[in-house]
C-alpha cells in the first residue's frame, strides 16, 4: 500500500508522522505508509473469494442473470466476466489494473491480482494491490439440462415416406451425417414409415426443414400448439411440429406416369424405372433410354405411384441379347442416357427352367447383360396391377417384363466388402425384420451407382480384410480405395478419450 503525493521541492522539509513520529515528506494525511496501512483498508467491502459457476457439459461460464458464455482460461472474456462479479462492490474505488495469477488448470481456482485507488484522509490518494480468488463451482446450464433430459423439446421434425422400402431414408441419413445436422437434435426416434427429430429451439428445426427441402423431393406442413401464456408479459410458449412427406418413390421402382406428365417430359413412355432419388426423381424409359428429372413440385401436381415393391421382383436368366444401335426417337423427344445401352433380350424365370416359357422385352441394361446372367425384374404379363394410369394404357404398350438390375451373389459381395458407413444414434421402434436386407440393398446401390455415392462419406473398414480369389469375382461393381475415408478417432497419449476442461 502506498499513497500518492506531489513532488517535493528543494526548499521543502520533512515533518513528523502524527502517529509514530518518524520524519516523512509532507502529505495530506500527515501519516507514514505503515500507519496508513494499519488505519485504512481501501479494499474493505470487496470480497476476496467469489464463486464462479461453470457447466462441465458445454464448458461455459454463467454470466448473471441467465446467460452462459464461452471463455478460455486467462482470456480477456474471462477477465471481463470476473470483474463484472466484483463491479457492484467497487463503486467507491477506482480500478487501476487487473491480471491473472497462474493456477493449476484443474485446481478449480482462478486468482485475479487487482490494483485499486481511493481518496482517504484529507484528500490523500491511496493505492492498494490485493488478490481475489474465484472458486469454480459446477452447475449444469439449461441447454444441457434439456439435452440430458431427452424428453424436453420445443420443435419436432417428422419425416415420413409411405413406401415399403427405406432406401431413401438410408441415403438421407448419410447426408445428415455428412453435414452434421444431427448434432443439434435432442433425440432421434425411428418409427414406422419415418424418423422424428426433436429440437430445443425452433431455429434448429427450421434449419433441418430447409436442408430436407433442398436434399429430397418433399412437401412440408407446419403446425404449433400453445403450451402456456403469460398475460402480464404477453409472452406465448408454443411447441412446433414440422411434417415432411417425401415422395413415395424409391430407387429401382417401376412407375407409370400420367399421359400429360409423360408428354411434358419429352414424349417418353409412361412405364419408367426410377434410376435414383436425390433432390429430384431420376426416371429412365427402358424402351428408348430417355431420361427425365421430376422435382417435388412437379410430382405433387402430377402424382404417380410405384407399381411394384422389392419383394415382388423375380429372378430371370438371360437367354439371348441383341444390342439396338441407331435408335431413332420421335418428334419432341427428350435427352437420352449415355451411361446405358438399349438392347432386346429374351429371358426366362429361374423358377420356370423346366418349361419353355420365355419373355421378350427391351431393357436399358444392355451394357451389363450377357447370356447366362441373372437379372431381377417385374413380370407384367402374369401379374395383376391396379393403377389408375396403367389401366387406361393400351395393352400393346405395356411390356411383358421390365428388368430392373443385374443380380450378383450377395454372400460373396458381403464377404469382400471392405468399407462401412456411419449411423446416427437413434431410438428404434417397430423395426421390421427385413430391415437388414433393405440395408444391404442400399449398400449394393452405392457400389453400383457412382453418382449416388458422391454425396456419401464412405469409410475404410480396417477390421475387414477381403479375400481375393479368381472364383469369387463375378464382375460385381466395387468401391475403390480412393473413394474411402479413414475412420479417425482423436485420443490422448494414454489411449483414452481426451479429458474435458476443469473436470474432477
TrEMBL record:
GO molecular function: ribosomal large subunit binding
Superkingdom of origin organism: Eukaryota
Domain 60S ribosomal export protein NMD3 SH3: 249-295
Gene Ontology CC, one term: nucleus
Keyword Glycosyltransferase: no
Keywords associated with the record: Cytoplasm, Nucleus, Protein transport, Transport
Domain 60S ribosomal export protein NMD3 OB-fold, chain residue ranges per copy: 313-406
Domain Nmd3 N-terminal: 17-246
InterPro entries cross-referenced by the UniProt entry: Nmd3, Nmd3_N, NMD_SH3, OB_NMD3
Pfam families: NMD3, NMD_SH3, OB_NMD3
GO biological process: protein transport; ribosomal large subunit export from nucleus
Subcellular location field: Cytoplasm; Nucleus
Family: Belongs to the NMD3 family.
PANTHER family, per the entry: 60S RIBOSOMAL EXPORT PROTEIN NMD3, NONSENSE-MEDIATED MRNA DECAY PROTEIN 3
Purpose of the protein: Acts as an adapter for the XPO1/CRM1-mediated export of the 60S ribosomal subunit.
Protein name stated in the entry: 60S ribosomal export protein NMD3
Native source organism of the sequence: Oncorhynchus mykiss (Rainbow trout)
Organism phylogeny: Eukaryota, Metazoa, Chordata, Craniata, Vertebrata
Amino acid at each position: 500500500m502506498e499513497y500518492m503525493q506531489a513532488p517535493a521541492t528543494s526548499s521543502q522539509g520533512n515533518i513528523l508522522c502524527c502517529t509514530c513520529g518518524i520524519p516523512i515528506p509532507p502529505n495530506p494525511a500527515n501519516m507514514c505508509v505503515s500507519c496508513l496501512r494499519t488505519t485504512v483498508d481501501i479494499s474493505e467491502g470487496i470480497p476476496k473469494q467469489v464463486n464462479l459457476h461453470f457447466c462441465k457439459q458445454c464448458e461455459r461460464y454463467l454470466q448473471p442473470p441467465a446467460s452462459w458464455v464461452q471463455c478460455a482460461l486467462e482470456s480477456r472474456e474471462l477477465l471481463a466476466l470476473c470483474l463484472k462479479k466484483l463491479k457492484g462492490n467497487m463503486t467507491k474505488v477506482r480500478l487501476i489494473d487487473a491480471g491473472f495469477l497462474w493456477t493449476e488448470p484443474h485446481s478449480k481456482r482462478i486468482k485475479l491480482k487487482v490494483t485499486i485507488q481511493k481518496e482517504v484522509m484529507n484528500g490523500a490518494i491511496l493505492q492498494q494491490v490485493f488478490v481475489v480468488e474465484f472458486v469454480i463451482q459446477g452447475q449444469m446450464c439449461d441447454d444441457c439440462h434439456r439435452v440430458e433430459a431427452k424428453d424436453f423439446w420445443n420443435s419436432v421434425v417428422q419425416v415420413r415416406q409411405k413406401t415399403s422400402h427405406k432406401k431413401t431414408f438410408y441415403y438421407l441419413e448419410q447426408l445428415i451425417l455428412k453435414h452434421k445436422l444431427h448434432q443439434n437434435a435432442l433425440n432421434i426416434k425411428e418409427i414406422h414409415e419415418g424418423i422424428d427429430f426433436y429440437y430445443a429451439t425452433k431455429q434448429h428445426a427450421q434449419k433441418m426443414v430447409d436442408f430436407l427441402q433442398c436434399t429430397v423431393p418433399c412437401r412440408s406442413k407446419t403446425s404449433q400448439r400453445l403450451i402456456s401464456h403469460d398475460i402480464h408479459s404477453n409472452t406465448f410458449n408454443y411447441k412446433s411440429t414440422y411434417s415432411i412427406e417425401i415422395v413415395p418413390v424409391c430407387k429401382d421402382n417401376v412407375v407409370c406416369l400420367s399421359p400429360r406428365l409423360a408428354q411434358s417430359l419429352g414424349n417418353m413412355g409412361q412405364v419408367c424405372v426410377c434410376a435414383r432419388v436425390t433432390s429430384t426423381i431420376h426416371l429412365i424409359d427402358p424402351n428408348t433410354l430417355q431420361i427425365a428429372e421430376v422435382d417435388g413440385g412437379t410430382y405433387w401436381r402430377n402424382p404417380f405411384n410405384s407399381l411394384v415393391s422389392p419383394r415382388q421382383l423375380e429372378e430371370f436368366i438371360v437367354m439371348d441379347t441383341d444390342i439396338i444401335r441407331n435408335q431413332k426417337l420421335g418428334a419432341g423427344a427428350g435427352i437420352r442416357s449415355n451411361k446405358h445401352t438399349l438392347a432386346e433380350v429374351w429371358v426366362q424365370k429361374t423358377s420356370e427352367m423346366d418349361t419353355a416359357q420365355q419373355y421378350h422385352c427391351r431393357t436399358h441394361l444392355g451394357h451389363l447383360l450377357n447370356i447366362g446372367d441373372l437379372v431381377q425384374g417385374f413380370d407384367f404379363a402374369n401379374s395383376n396391377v391396379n393403377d389408375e394410369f396403367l389401366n387406361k394404357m393400351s395393352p400393346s404398350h405395356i411390356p411383358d417384363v421390365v428388368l430392373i438390375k443385374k443380380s450378383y451373389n450377395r454372400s460373396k459381395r458381403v464377404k469382400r466388402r471392405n468399407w462401412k458407413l456411419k449411423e446416427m444414434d437413434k431410438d428404434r421402434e417397430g423395426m421390421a425384420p427385413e430391415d437388414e436386407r433393405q440395408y444391404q440393398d442400399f449398400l449394393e446401390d452405392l457400389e453400383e451407382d457412382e453418382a449416388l455415392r458422391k454425396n456419401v462419406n464412405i469409410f475404410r473398414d480396417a477390421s475387414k480384410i477381403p479375400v481375393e480369389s479368381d472364383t469369387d469375382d463375378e464382375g460385381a461393381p466395387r468401391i475403390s480405395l480412393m473413394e474411402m475415408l479413414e475412420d479417425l478417432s482423436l485420443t490422448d497419449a494414454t489411449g483414452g478419450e481426451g479429458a474435458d476442461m476443469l473436470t474432477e
